[in-house]
Amino acid sequence: MSKLRKRKGLDGVDISPAQWVSLFAIALFVIVPFWSSAIAGFKDIGELRTTPFGLPQSWDPKNFTEILYGGSFFRFLWNSLRIAAVTVLLTLVTSSMAAFALAHIKFFGRTSITSLFLIGLLFPFATAILPLFITIRNLGLLDNPLGVILPQVAFNLAFSILLFMTFFKDLPHELIDAAKMDRCNYLRIYWYIVLPLSLPILTTVAVFAFVGSWNNYLLPLVMLNNDSSFPWPLGVMQYQGQYITNWPKVLAFLTLTTLPALAFFLAAQRFIISGLTGGAVKG
Amino acid sequence: MSQTSVIQSGKRSTRGQKAFFQASILIVPALILFIGLVIWPLLNAFMFSFYKWNGFGPLTDFEGLDNYGDVLTHRTFPTALRNVGLLAVTSLLIQLPLALWAALALYQKAWFVSVFRTLFFLPYVLAEIAAGLIWRFVYDGEYGLVPAIGDTLHTEMPFVLAERAWVMPAIILVVMWKYFGFHMMIYIAGLQSIPNEVIEAARMDGVSRRKIMWHIKIPMIKSSIAISVFFAIVGSLQLFDLIVPLTGGGPQNSSHTLVSFLYEFGIRRMKLGFGGATSVVLFVICVGVTLLYRRLVLARMDQ
Amino acid sequence: MKRLALATALAAVFATQAVADTTIKWLHITSIPEEVELLKAAAREYEAANPGITIEDQFLENEAFKAKLTTLLQSDAAPDIFFSWGGGVLTAQVDAGVLRSIDDVVSPDTLASVGSAGVDAFTRDGKLYGVARDVGEVVLWYNKKLFAQAGVDPASMSDWTGFLAGVEKLKAAGITPLALAGKDKWPAQFWWGKMIVRLAGQDQFEAAAAGEGDGFNAAPFVEAGKYLYELGALKPFQPGFEAATYGDASGYFGDGKAAMHLMGDWDYTVMKDSSASKAGIPDEDLGIMPFPTVGGGAGDPTDTLGGLSGWLFSKNASDESIKFVEWFNSAPVQQRFAEKSYYIPIVAGGADTMTNPYKRQVAEDINKAHWHALFFDQRLGPDVGGVFNDLAIGLAANAITPEDAAAQLQEAVEDAQ
């Protein structure tokens, strides 16, 4: 980047004109494919294939209305939401606790356990499916949302713990040392000091865990049998025929189901961007 | 002196025990879930790799190391290796710098900034099947954007997903589109944690923006960058979900990644021993990469 | 695994007790809403006539169905009745002991109505495991208008030399001769498959599939590959065919952009649905031409290549579920499906209400066929079948030599033994 004039824009936001131009260029790169997806819902199969980026011949919302009034759409969304919410909660709790212990408590076996968790990142989920099925079946959790939630949390642990550890290591040591000096036990340090300071990373991990759970298809497919408990990726199957798929319907469905995940992200952003208020160290 | 040292060592050992106990409470829930639902399947897959198994019933057909031989000598294996390598390199050289650049611009508080943040994160939120499908439209040789671009430039564009020479660059572009927002968010969370006073102090001292960026902001999120590099490399090695809708591994199996290779030649063909062996090979590669990473990156960071 | 055995034993004990109220779980892959309605209506009709029986139908999409079946059949949630394309997957399921044989319940009338081909397709080691439902055939669809435009007479393409000449003439006229879905790979198997049917015939194919003799390295199979290779060398397919899905290729043909499409009879509907106009090729312009003959093949000219699908029963399926399928598969019920041409029922009289002329022709062809070869990627099982598809598209794209293809196929068969 060449010499950029320092420019205090609106609200004291510090972005140069050259940066703005590039941001808009990237935004275009990002949006164009989405444009195709959003308008796809208004087309027919053949029309979508031959004019994916053009405006639809008619703005008939038939696909969207059929989905919304079909009766099962909101049930699928609700199932997805339930599974995602519990997954996020369990992921945040278990991984932040473990990460804190691994980052700040010196105890026997610390590095081995860290390495153990690391293994979770190095292993493709596709092969785990069959043994996981057998384990969940033995636990009697088949056709139970927990049969989807628990493996999701388990597979989230590796990257969540890593992310948390990275951030916990960067926390001001003085705070924690001061608390230790005051005979604070680690559980209290975790709860009263570390967690409040970690809002940005907590929300970031929450977003990743939510999106991962929201879009997960293979795990629920194998673990759930009753279509009343299907999350939306399984619900989209009804538009996939024996020979061809009704892509306009599928894309309409996907456009509608992306919205909640997006909403979650928007809500979460406020926490990510809350930032530190500083002074905790000085005071 | 000796008395106090005895007392102190006594204290230290109980404190050590207390620490261990508290650490256990914090770690045990995660550990149970992890060992039961991740490690156990991993060990199982390791076991299948020594058998010929189609997924039904018990393991009966012991084959020793045959599956490993089959994997390593499979026609498509070197291609899959090459492809994940390409993905990893381009991720590091293009995707991550892009994400970092975006994060530096967009970590600030302002509503219009958050619009961009949301937009850039959107591809990550979109399910892979949709992303794959939409990019197929973009690349379609008859009706897509590629020929439209070709028309404006007055050149003939190849049918990108059907040409062996173009298919990997095409996939790389989609991967970048989809995942740069993920890395951007990691950097933003890091940048958000930099206390404002540090930046303000530097500004007041008249330090230039560029210097602030290179000498303050980036170093302070060093560990975020390090972890994102790690995720990018391991993520490239594990890429799968985008390949199936985009190319299915084609044309002529030229765009397989290690996991799509595992899925196609192992799972879909009901050769789970082969699949197990592939995942073990992949695992070994990942472990190797991790050790290398630790030595090269983490060691330098501690300086 | 021990626990599984125990659970199975317990389940078997409970299953043998006569239960007054039975629930039948029925897993299908039908997604067309109107067809599903017919299915559900039939279920309700049966329930009304047979109090105490409840039928729960469940749908899974094709790929999801295949992905889930293995795990599903090994759990308590295994459906009583489920759809099957037969072939190697059926063999694997029988070997794994996850199916129930139905000889003890099925009536001789049912066996007769389904026909010997239907019975054979679902028999393994002398035991019957399923009830055949429908047949399909791979045919060479062609667009009469495009042929006229290029001045090509379909009759001139009845043998291989004439066929290649016709392809070249179409190309010269600026028309894409053939539509092919390369990304999905399975459509490519039809070209190699038809050639093998012509050249090797039933006996040699079955012998090779069983791993006898030279297997697929034998001359007829290499020959078959050579013909496909030769065709591919003319570059007769649409641009970018290697990235085209079945929907793309079918729509391309339906839009009138390609002159021919070697595809199953179901393409009649799919071609219309995929086309930009939604009408596809109008009936007066659409024809089926016989697949070109090749000199001196061991195959019988009436041999057909296609599908034969039906319903299988999981290990603990109730007797009632078998009786239900017998009723469902009877001519009167199946005629409702034939009327709308959803598929071609195999049961005698089931196809009587079919009005679609193309489907009628297909039904006749299959009836007269000396050998109705099952799609090779089904017949050979998921492993060798996958290899077959890969090699087929490789031959079509001239990325692999016929000798190499035959060798690799043989290797796969030997590995699977």
What does this structure look like?
The complex is a heterotrimer of chains A (283), B (303) and C (417). The relative contact order of chain A is 0.13. With 283 residues, chain A is mainly alpha-helical. In chain A, helix 4 (73-104) packs across helix 9 (186-197) and helix 10 (199-214) packs antiparallel against helix 13 (247-272). Chain A is built from 13 helices and no strands. Helix content of chain A is 67%, strand content 0%. Chain B is mostly helical. Chain B folds into two domains: 1-48; 68-302, MetI-like (MetI-like fold, Orthogonal Bundle). The two termini of chain B are 37 Å apart. Helices cover 50% and strands 16% of the residues of chain C. Chain C has 18 helices and twelve strands. Chain C has helices at residues 2-16, 33-49, 62-73, 87-96, 108-121, 144-150, 160-172, 188-199, 201-209, 219-233, 246-254, 267-274, 319-328, 331-339, 357-368, 376-379, 381-396, 402-416, and strands at 22-28, 53-59, 81-84, 123-124, 127-128, 130-143, 176-179, 258-264, 286-289, 304-313, 344-345, 372-374. In chain C, helix 2 (33-49) links the parallel strand 1 and strand 2 (53-59). The radius of gyration of chain C is 22 Å and the shape is globular. Classes of the chains: A mainly alpha (283), B mainly alpha (303), C alpha/beta (417). Chains in contact: A-B, A-C, B-C. The interface between A and B is large, with 108 and 103 residues.
Which descriptors would you attach to this protein?
heterotrimer, B: 303 residues, mainly alpha, 2 domains, two-stranded antiparallel sheet, 2 strands, flat, C: 417 residues, alpha/beta, 18 helices, 12 strands
Beginning-to-end CA distance, first to last residue of chain C: 25 Å
**N-to-C SSE string of chain A, H for helix and E for strand:** HHHHHHHHHHHHH
* Overall number of structural domains of chain A: 1
**Count of helix runs of chain C:** 18
CATH class call of chain A: Mainly Alpha
Helix content class of chain C: 40-55%
* Beta-strand share of residues of chain A: under 5%
What structural category do the secondary elements of chain C indicate? alpha/beta
Quickly count the helices of chain A: 13
Number of strands of chain A: 0
CATH topology of chain A: MetI-like fold
Mean pLDDT across the residues of chain A is 83
Tell me the radius of gyration of chain C: 22 Å
What would the principal axes of the Cα set say about the shape of chain C? globular
Helical fraction of chain A: 55-70%
Which residues of chain A sit in consecutive blocks of at least 5 with pLDDT less than 50? 1-11, 275-283
The overall pLDDT of chain C, averaged over residues, is 91
How would you spell out the order of helices and strands of chain C? HEHEHEHHEEEHHEHHHHEHEEHHEHEHHH
